[in-house]
Amino acid sequence: MSSTAPVAESPARDSASAASISLKAVDPDLTARARYWKNFVSDPVIAAFIAGGVAGAVSRTVVSPLERLKILFQIQNVGRNEYKMPVHKALAKMWREEGWRGFMAGNGSNCLRIVPYSAVQFGSYNFYKRFFEDTPGADLGPYQRLCCGAFAGMTSVSFTYPLDIVRTRLSVQSASFETLKEAAAQGRNGMFGLMASMYRNEGGVAALYRGIIPTVAGVAPYVGLNFMVYDTMRKFFTHEGQANPDAWGKLAAGASSGAIAQTCTYPFDVLRRRFQINTMKGLGYQYTSISGAIRQIISQEGIAGLYKGIVPNLLKVAPSMAASWLSFEMTRDFFVAMRPEPL
Length: 343
What we know:
GO molecular function: metal ion binding
Number of domains: 1
Subcellular location: Mitochondrion inner membrane
Main location: mitochondrion
Order of helices and strands: HHHHHHHHHHHHHH
Number of strands: 0
Strand content: under 5%
CATH topology: Mitochondrial carrier fold
Keywords: Calcium, Membrane, Metal-binding, Mitochondrion, Mitochondrion inner membrane, Repeat, Transmembrane, Transmembrane helix, Transport
CATH superfamily: Mitochondrial carrier domain
Helix content: over 70%
Radius of gyration: 24 Å
CATH class: Mainly Alpha
InterPro entries: MCP, MCP_dom_sf, MCP_transmembrane
Largest sheet: none
Number of helices: 14
């Protein structure tokens, strides 16, 4: 037989308990308020909103150098070759000329954008799910996830697009493109200074939403595919007898979903970046329409022009989406687990 000796209460624990009892005596609604906030943050939509913000910040910071390099490749039109493949040489050039700040250029504004973007995306996805569920809490089919993800993508990009266009400008202006000195001077006032300058000098609100049509056209299928493929791959990496995949399975599912979704929708991302800097002088193009931009890119740069930057993009999207989905699920599960037991 074995016996367990009683554990003596420490003085610190006694005083904490006494303080808790004292607070309850002074404020009898303390427990009710605590239950309210626990119920609030454990709601599926709210938990997904908070977890989405965390996931966005983690995923983008992890791959910031590759994200910036992708943008620099995307905006190089024919005749410009300041940044060349292979990727490691382009990264080495960035490091030699700009150091660590070059690797992280635009990441602050990117995180300011991606936190609300990712939060709205995951939160709105869980909101839209309710309209597609056969019964409350029922699992969705692949096409239902595709539709929910598309709506979530359009919602999130509409809310945060001005931050995205400013992030692109900040990523570009310090790069070694000879003719971007004017843009660099504009950006010295920071993200909000650049936003104000664009508003005053480039057409008001319309300037802050330049390129949103190709952006929405690319984001809707990308986010939809991301959610649909992730769910499919998540089941694939779930071992028999488990309800959910382990951490490595979630990482693999996230990496697969990001790579597939990005490859399918990448030309829209190139168009998005080109239109975002369409008014910047010295880059050699001034597009007037989406169809005209596509024709000009293909005629001058070939089909490959629509896939410029896809190599660093694929190198960054796999770890980015893996980190995003894993941190999202861990954070969401933490908040959902806070839901108090019914009285």
